[in-house]
Amino acid sequence: MNIVDYFFLHSKNLKKDFVLGPVEQISYNQLYEKSLKLSQYLNRKLGENQNIILMSHNSVFFLISYLGIMKSGNICIPLNPLIEQKNLDFIIKSTDCKYFFIASKTSEKYSLPDATIINEAELETITNLPADIDNVIHEDFDENRLAQILFTSGSTGLPKGVMLSHKNLRSNTDSIIEYLKLTSDDIIEVVLPFYYCYGLSLLHTHMRVGGSVVLNNNFVFLGSVLNDIDKYNCTGFAGVPSHFQILLRKSKTFKKSEFPSLRYFTQAGGKLHNVFIQELVQAFPQKKFFVMYGQTEATARLSYLPPELLVKKLGSIGKGIPNVTLDVFNKNDQPVEVGEVGEIVAKGDNIMIGYFNDPEGNKQTLRNGWLHTGDMAKKDEDGFIYLVAREKEIIKVGGKRISPKEIEEVIVSIPEVVDCTIEGIYDEILSEAIKATVVLIDNTDEEKAKEKILTTCRNKLVMYKIPQIIEFKKKLDVNQAGKKVASVSFSSIKN
Question: Which residues in 216-300 belong to E strands, given as ranges?
Fold first, then answer.
């Protein structure tokens, strides 16, 4: 079954709004009809199996384009609307893409010679044309066909294309719905972009169950996010670590709010330090908090930790989600012993077809039926998995090996600290010295904060793990998905 038919199987005639919010709204039956009209237009113009780029912030324009492209049997390539021109050029050339859906404000920023571009106005014209939208489900559609290519940052610096099939999308959607127990009553506040697999998983799951989404592209305005949750009776909120760190330490009202409609939080996109998990649980003891782990190569999700085990298994990413086999292998591709460090591997219908035009990458990542994630972890006696630092993340000071996460965990335990990043920098004597880059709550005195950081580190860490350099920044530098990026610092204080 085509993934779009799967999404709308029980909801195509609903007059209920799928998109809620102050800017745009659209009902299920309107979205279904417009997507079908676009798919028929694309079939007439392009046929099938063509690569089509989609560049837009979260919007109704994105949704109609995304669904229409995949329903037509073509391949959707959702891209960050702020992508660098050189990376866009690389993707266009490698995918031989000539057809684009780009929001009008976005297309002005780029040079796109010889491109056929459809913007909001042209899409509106297409979807208002008369069309036959009855009997459009093709029962013989091969769900192993390619549905989309999601580009991520590659190890060479060039974007790496993850190829996902209609079956991959269906499998992961089914699994997530099962463990989150989503229903048509669920409404999700969406601050994650849809070109990111985590954001797409919110779209897929809520569309499948007949729920609703509230689109908010301005997480920087915390008040609007919190107001949305109450105004639209949201039952869920999903974020990456920086979202929760900002809400817990920067917002004056978040921890004091009740959010009566809110049923759960989900977190993925990197490890959230234990201290923030504990803070969230203490602030909202009646809300469920799902810590999750995943990769684009796994469509989105690979594991979750049941909320009732959050305290007992603090720091764990849990076990495999329904219909996914998750394990930790040693260098001989055998399951590790308890406490032994190895690589997380996964098997299931959610695992990607492979990397686009990258046979060498496929050989390294897809071996003997397993996805090799590249993430290092260990298991406890109950089989719960805990991420550990990768070899390349380890800092060596005077011959001693140090995990940055251990030091970060100590520093973020200080209430005035919003975020901390530990890295090794060149040192003539020790070969590497420890540098801490810290974001503080607004209006915190940096000198006093420095003393508090050093005192806390001296009390909880051995001497060689104490940062030699402490640098302060005014805010977290994050990309549109909320993930941290490197940036220039504002001030530094040497220890």
Answer: 236-239, 264-267, 288-294
